[in-house]
Design a protein that fits this description.
The protein is of the alpha+beta class and about 230 residues long. It has a single domain, classed as L-fuculose-1-phosphate Aldolase (3-Layer(aba) Sandwich), CATH 3.40.225. The protein has helices spanning about 5-20, 75-80, 80-90, 105-110, 120-125, 140-150, 175-195, 205-220, and strands at about 30-35, 40-45, 60-65, 70, 95-100, 135, 160-165, 165-170. An 8-stranded mixed β-sheet has the order 4-3-2-1-5-8-7-6, with helices on both faces. The chain starts with 5 loop residues before the first helix and ends in a 5-residue tail after the last helix. The mean pLDDT is about 95. The protein binds zinc ion. The site of zinc ion (ZN) has 5 residues, from loops.
Length: about 230
């Protein structure tokens, strides 16, 4: 039987590979990736606990109220469903969510330190506010989900939140954007960690962050420049 939603399945495979290719993942390769399926309140999500060599048939379809509609899912993946779902519910434009324990940002999550906007790539990725840490709760638990909601209630243009003592949750309009959000946050955390040895990274002035985005958009709108 042909698999449902082949395009969305491939988007998860490709998104997972974008993360694996640059190594923005912990050494266990642990992670989970979901995309919104069209025309229903449901997500496709990795049914295994690793982002390495994800296959299109290793995904399950879960409804917004947490029921398995298609496929089967491991207990460790079932535990984390609600932390994916809360992002789709709180940010209706979200097309994909990814969770990893990428090591540099997970170090920030374990130290419970917000990741400030000190690296331009983060601002260019649309993250013009510090990445906050949601307080600790066991993975996917009501307590953990409430803590995620709490940091998202500020209604800032977040593309990611840290899960205290756990890892990162990143999202975007599609799977490639969610993977890039994971990657740019991890790269930013790596650079901030190195900068700490030099006295600490300096935040980009808040007023300049919008200017950076406007300039990016201006050049993008002008398109390629030819001789
Ligand atoms: Zn985790």
């Amino acid at each position: 039987m042909a698999l449902s939603y082949p395009e969305q399945r491939q988007a998860i495979v490709d998104g997972s590979n974008l993360i694996m290719d640059i190594g923005a993942i912990s050494m266990s390769n642990h992670g989970n990736f979901s995309v919104k399926v069209p025309d229903q309140d449901a997500i496709l999500i990795t049914a295994v606990a690793s982002l390495k060599n994800v296959k299109p048939d290793q995904l399950a379809i879960i409804s917004f109220d947490g029921k398995v509609l298609e496929g089967e899912i491991s207990p460790t993946s079932m535990e984390i469903i609600n932390m994916h779902l809360i992002i789709y519910k709180k940010r209706p434009g979200t097309g994909a969510v990814v969770h990893t324990h990428a090591p540099f940002i997970t170090a920030f999550a374990c130290a419970q330190k917000d990741l400030d906007c000190s690296y331009e790539a983060m601002v260019r990725a649309g993250m013009t506010e510090a990445i906050p840490v949601a307080g600790y709760g066991p993975r996917g638990s009501d307590e953990s989900v409430k803590n995620i909601e709490k940091v998202m209630n500020a209604d800032t243009p977040l593309g990611a939140v840290m899960l205290g003592n756990h890892g990162l949750l990143a999202w975007g309009a599609d799977a490639a954007s969610a993977a890039r959000a994971n990657n740019v946050v991890e790269e930013s955390a790596q650079i901030a960690t190195y900068a700490a040895a030099l006295g600490g990274a300096i935040a980009i002035p808040a007023a300049m962050r919008g200017v950076t985005i406007a300039r990016r958009d201006e050049f993008a709108a002008a398109g390629n420049v030819r001789a």
